[in-house]
Amino acid sequence: MSMNNQGRPTGIGEATASNVKTFTGNKALQIEEGLSFEIGSYAQTGVDLPEPKGGADRLGGLNRNNDIGLPGLSEPETMRHFVRLSQKNYAIDMGPFPLGSCTMKHNPRLNEKMARLPGFGDLHPLAPESAVQGALELIDTLAFWLKELTGMPAVAMSPKAGAHGELCGMMAIKAALEARGEAGKRKRVLAPESAHGTNPATAVQCGFTVENIPADKTGRVDLEALKAKLGDDIAGIMVTNPNTCGLFERDIRAIADAVHEAGGYFYCDGANFNAIAGKVRPGDLGVDAMHINLHKTFSTPHGGGGPGSGPTVLSEALAPFAPVPYVICEDGKYSLVETRRAAKAEGESAESFGRLTAFHGQMGMFVRALSYMMSHGKDGVRQASEDAVLNANYVLARLKAEMTPAFEGHCMHEALFDDRFLKDTGVETIDFAKAMIDEGYHPMTMYFPLVVHGAMLIEPTESESKRELDLFCGAMLSLAKRAKAGEAESFKAAPVYAPRRRLDETAAARHPVLRWTPAQKAEAAE
Length: 526
Fold this sequence. Notes:
The structure is a single chain. The chain is an alpha/beta fold. It folds into 2 domains: 111-369, Type I PLP-dependent aspartate aminotransferase-like (Major domain) (Aspartate Aminotransferase, domain 2); 383-510, Aspartate Aminotransferase, domain 1. The chain is built from 15 helices and 13 strands. It is globular. The two termini are 32 Å apart.
């Protein structure tokens, strides 16, 4: 244990945080906080309002005749309650987010400031076009750069998220098949075993059946197996590139050519576009449709169910079937083409499959994404992709001394490991992830992709410095060495320093408690 210059120990010594009990349950600045139902009083409210006097009763006999059943807290108590809860969240503003396949990266504050500018932050979706010319110009400008970056002639801006963008692309494919008179014949969609779960779900939602394509020993699509599944009933293929194993599909052009020769279309899941933006144009690879997660590639916030944005770029073959609305500019005036009839009159989207959503995309996400593009420039976007790949390969190189990479060679934007290094240690992937919490890190993506046993998928992103990566790698190497040294018991007990110990996640998933009642106890949390 080290000593400071006043002779006091700087370590925690024998009295560890796990065995020192406090009266309050607090651990210094880690404040214990119950549910508002548990700490509030049902006999009072934070605001005392008088009974209303006069005026006709317009509730039609539906007046409340019992107490509302909600706890009352004063304003300071309410504020402290939610601040304390927020302090239990891990955030990108606190440290790295190694969660692979989600790109939890820093969101520049400049982008946030732009999204709050008057005229952007206070827009109403039903405002007249004459009052939102700047917003429409911004959407049109962002659309232009998305087409430039992807090498595609058209883009649908209305999809609200990645899965929504997939739906848009597959609906365009279905509309194209209907126009060819082959919708009833072409029903099969191919998807790799490592595909995102939304891929097959989206295809089924559009009325297709899905068949898996196995991966080869390098973690990429088995080209020969794919060709063996092609036939005159193929509607298309859905491939993520770079794929979910963090690898670039080297045969991507051959895959596109084979599918096109069979009469199908090529949908590319653009969830990992952040690894190739500014480096590779999907349109040059034979892609017919691809969604772009603005909330990943171009820094806008995401997580917790939103907000997101998933514009979908379309090839020349699918552009006529793009959904409405879309922005046009005539004589310097911007307007929205709102209906299929109007689209047909314009001739730009003569066979549109219709409206995908009520309003035109996510304006806040558009502002942030364009701010990111304009502040970085074309060379900056390219460098961000290069740095994302560099950081992932640095992590791969540092960790392979103690951990086992799932595949040989370099990776793209995320490094994938399996659990072979934990063999015979008594430590499982879940235990390793829980121990990361005690080290102050959010666990990486676990057990996905399913093609790798005990998968640990780490995506450092381009926004992490070498110092941060070295600290993270040091913690991971330390955990790997501890597991191999026989410290399985401590891994099984982790996390020790979290506000709550390890949850029974299986019981919580199978028997969720969705409503609080005074008699219930949070036994699953112990």
